[in-house]
Amino acid sequence: MTATGYSPGRTLPLRVEFVRQFRRRRTMVMFALLAALPWILVIAFQFGPNNNNGGSGLRISDLATEGGLNFAAFALSVSASFLLMVAVALFCGDTVASEANWSSLRYLLAAPIPRDRLLRQKLIVALTYSAAAVTVVPVMAVLAGTITFGWNDVRVPGTGEVIAAVDVLPKFGIVILYAMVTNLVVASLAFLLSVSTDSPLGAVGGAVGLVIVSTILQAVEALGGLREFLPTFWNTAWLDALAPVPDYSGMIKGSAVAVTYAAVLLALAFRRFRRKDVVS
Amino acid sequence: MTFPGGRRGLAVLAAVLVAVAAIAWLAWPSDGPPQGEDVVIPVVDGPADDQKVLIDASYFPPEGGGRAPAVLLGHGFGGSKNSVRDQAGQLAEQGYAVLTWSARGFGRSTGEIALNSPDYEVKDVKQLIDWLAAKPDVLLDAAGDPRVGMAGGSYGGAIALMTAAHDPRVDAIAPSITWYDLADALFPEASGAGPATGVFKKMWAGIFFSAGGSGLNPASQADGLARLLGGSSAQPAPTEITPEQAQCGRFLPAICTVYQQIAATGKATPEAIDLLRKSSPVSVQGKIKIPSLIIQGQRDSLFPLGHADLNAKAIAATGAPVEVAWIAGGHDGGDGETDFVFDQTLSWFDTYLKKTGAATGQAFTVSRDGGRDPGTRQNVLLHAEGTSYAGLGGTVTTQLDLLGPDQEVATPPGGSPAAISSVPGLGGLLGGGGGGSSAGASLDLPGQVATFETRPLDTALTVTGSPTAEIKVYGAGEVTLFAKLYDAASGQLAVLPGGLAAPLRVTASAAGTPVKVALPAIDRRIEPGHVLRLSVTTTDMAYALPAQPSVHTVGLGSTTLTMPVDAGLVAPPSGPAWWTWAFPLASIIAAAVILLTGRPRRADIAPDAALAEVPLAITGLTKRYKNGHKAVDDLSFRVEKGQVLGLLGPNGAGKTTTMRMMMGLIHPDAGEIRIFGAKVVPGAPVLSRLGSFVEGPGFLPHLSGRANLELYWQATGRPAADAHMEEALEIAGLGAAVERATRTYSQGMRQRLAIAQAMLGLPDLLVLDEPTNGLDPPQIAEMRRVLRSYATEGRTVIVSSHLLGEVEQTCSHAVVMHRGRLVSAGTVADLLKRGDLNGSTRLEDVFLDLIGEKA
Questions:
Q1: Residues of B (764-803) whose Cβ lies below 8 Å from A
Q2: B11 belongs to a structural domain
Q3: What is the mean pLDDT of chain A?
Q4: What radius of gyration, in Å, describes the C-alpha atoms of chain A?
Q5: Does residue B331 belong to any structural domain of this protein?
Q6: Hey, are the CB atoms on A251 and B598 less than 8 Å from each other?
Q7: Which of residues 170-229 of A touch B (CB under 8 A)?
Q8: What is the pLDDT of residue A38?
């Protein structure tokens, strides 16, 4: 019935999809930018006037030059809210829409790669690239910060308390993991838009747009407790993991909200793609 | 009614309408709380009942009509009835008749401040109750006896307690952050010696006193102070202020005289103590016998938790129901928990005035630091609850060992510089922003402080109540000391809970005078690894200090530090909220439903064995696009092995749509396509025998031609050897260009590469859409040759075209389509024969004839 050697379970191996995506300029530029950001920040700190305003109200930016880990926390705090989110939206929003845009999608489907499998493989690859993007910034920031400012214990914003570096390192792992989980919402929305449109820009922009709207709504105090369920509300909860007494309740809530949105959005993406007439 | 986009448009419209309605409903301006009606109530008071005073009051009738219980809502010191207007409105909305008033000497009320004296303010309020009894919408227990409760903070709380003692008509009270003994509040002494030897709390006393004059001179009324004490007064300054008024503000002269005396000496005279106690619940012990909700603040160096403790115990001794709540804030700032206090007060009155609500059974509530809300970055509070109030000694105690040598402490001349524990009137300044945290930073000065520490704690300890310790003071003469208990950890600033210090006045002796110190009552969790540090200093900025310098030695009288613990207090579950597991679970179930209901049915796609050798069989195929256009209409034809079939038709005939359906890209509305007997559905495995090129090439522009083909073949998951890659590349004929990125290719190069891709693996059925578009004449000729030879080996080729010459020269068979329908099917030779009848054997003429557009 089928051509010799064909088996649906062997179509579009992950390795192939990784190569297909990796050689793209978009991927390279994004990773170069993410890896360069900590170095740009290091240079900026070297140039800037040293306004050590000490005393009360130590902000995370005041402490960035304390050491490698402090610098990494700062780099993550400035990039997590927007840059990483754009990177995730790019990897997940572009993946199917760009194939449709290039017309290569129809040949993959007629190969045939079963639709669910195509989507699954693409999702795994896109999420892996997203996770790598989220990891690159803090890891590179630890490296850049340690080379420039030394390997010192962490000083906590606000109180200026000191925590031993070795105690903080595993917490950094949790922070990175949490950053990945919170970005699941953006990833899954971008992915849903990606299967719904032939325009990669539309998918990426749509997901970023949602984040912007959510961030704006978050500032409307009149919404009260409803804001807890906005997809971006808990995005900064990882700061609690770096406190002297870590508090994970916010991160648990943030993860719950992220998983809730992501599961439904991804399911919708698969359902939509199954039923879709591919006319691109 | 039709919308662009049909059902989908309707759904979008409905969603938008619902969203707009929801926003309008949320944003619709509400009426706002009732404003109340202003009334002036004349009263007569004074020891001899001969002083006429006009009380400026506001009456808020109960919402909902009928007779309702009444609530008298008092204001804080320095405030007026306007300070509690909002709460009064809210209570009225909850169905209470609410009366707020400016106490005598405040706001627009006349008279002088007598500090809630039974002869003055209490008599005034009794007459306010008379006034309430005459209102038609106030519920009466008996003629002249309204059902009435009293609530208020600080000064307003004390009048509730004092009136409850003197007027049996009051049915329930909910005083907050107020005093039990005003003398003790201003002259505290932590060893229990009483106000006669107490240390004068000069800063609070000064603020208290100056706030009483604020009505005379608004310019002197510092905004922050007035706010702390319960709101600002809008009274305009009289044109002339007498020297006496300037000195005493609106205080009763007798009180003013006493204040000037104690403020000058820093010592409490018996007259002063007598006068202050007359205005204090301590003087009416056993007389308050009604349900009382006592709310006190944990950040309150003016009326610390001990005052609530004594009030609660005195009232509970009469058998009346009492509940105690320790809120986070207080006179020193912090979170005043306005909403919590309002809710507690309301439920208290619902239980004991309306008698509708059931008592919570939680006799003791403590607000605790609940960490920071990660979303808002604000501190949040938890409310730990217990079924009984254990007092400041706790239900159990934990003994810790204190360590430290005897240390010399110096009293500086003039009492300066002085240590800081809290700064009255500037609450929260030292506490790092205050918020909900009961933590405070403070400053001790070297040379003035003796410190004793416990060992680091092995387990966490939550202290609730007043810790006790014993020190010894060596030397000669009288010394003023301040004992504080810090929560300290290495690498962190030591925290003085609540910013509270316990003042002591000790007569030292050479052998050492032992002093039992009751440290300030607190509620705090001490983390493992932290130590408790007892500091004994000679100075504190908030208190009156001796002017003479001296040096004393402070040591431990006992190494035991006794920490009270309330085992009955249960913090609400601080675990994750229910939705943190319920939402993801529900979402995953919803996702599963979405996926499972969307599965295509597999029942009717069994292969048809009879057609196993037929490359393509189309029956009744119909496709209607969403815009209503019928692209393919009941199309049926068959293609046999070895044929080169031309699919002919003008633009828009449905050729491409048919080919897309063959590839499983588009779902047909009716009919079916079978390839070698297997029904075509999206991703059907039989498609692996189909090679296709439809509507232009599709390559990854950043990859070379060869990489594109190789990755495409790898994506099919089939063995590399089956690809016949080199043959395909030969057909593409790109030469060295095959190593360049495809975005640099010309239209013809891409076209050839795409046809090569379709031929990868030498599929049994090859479907090509307009294959010769963009090719130059030699390439077209070559392509024709390739296609004809491809079919000779038992393979089948379908070529769509609108170029008739193309079909005529390449194809053995032809299917003519027009407007989605089949017009003719058969060999090209048969088609040309039909032309004979009409006089022209040119395919073009036959074709135009078939589609009915013959020129």
A1: 764
A2: no
A3: 88
A4: 21
A5: yes
A6: no
A7: 218, 222, 227-228
A8: 93
Query: For the segment B602-658, what is each residue's pLDDT rounded down to a tens digit?
Result: 555 678 888 888 999 999 999 998 888 889 999 999 999 989 999 988 888 889 999
How, if at all, do strands B796-801 and B644-648 pair?
A: parallel
Check which CATH number belongs to the domain holding B546 and give it.
Answer: 2.60.120.260
Q: Are B384 and B570 spatial neighbours (Cβ–Cβ below 8 Å)? A: yes
The CATH number assigned to the domain holding B374 equals 3.40.50.1820
3-state SS, residue B5: coil
DSSP label at residue A10: G
pLDDT of the residue at B580: 84
Contacts of A18 in chain B (CB under 8 A): none
Domain residues for the domain of B118 are 37-182+281-386
Provide the shortest C-alpha distance from residue B677 to chain A (in Å): 8
Task: Determine, yes or no, domain membership for B17.
Answer: no
State the complex-level ipTM.
0.91
Nearest C-alpha of chain B: how many angstroms from A47? 31
B50 Cβ neighbours under 8 A, 6+ residues apart: B44
Residues B108 and B160 in one domain: yes
Which of B250, B278, B306 lies at the terminal end of a domain, its last residue? Answer: B278
pLDDT at site B228: 40
Rounded CA gap, A165 and B366, in Å? 36
Residues B732 and B738: their CA atoms lie apart, in Å, by 9
Instruction: Say if A252 is an interface residue toward chain B (CB within 8 Å).
Output: yes
Domain end residue (candidates: B329, B355, B386): B386
Number of domains, chain B: 4
Flag whether B391 is in a domain: no
Q: Where are the domains of chain A?
A: 9-275
- Is the bond preceding B34 in cis, omega lying within 30 degrees of 0? no
**Cα distance from B441 to chain A (closest Cα, Å)?**
11
**Rounded distance between C-alpha atoms, residue B466 and residue B392, angstroms:** 5
Q: How many CB atoms lie within 10 A of CB A45?
A: 17
- Tokens 């008996």 correspond to what residue? B142
CB of A12 within 8 Å of any CB in chain B? yes
pLDDT digits (tens, 9 = 90+) for B559-612: 999 999 988 888 766 556 788 888 999 999 999 999 888 676 655 567 888 888
Question: How far, in Å, CA of B216 to CA of B221, rounded?
Answer: 9
A29/B contact by beta carbon, under 8 A: no
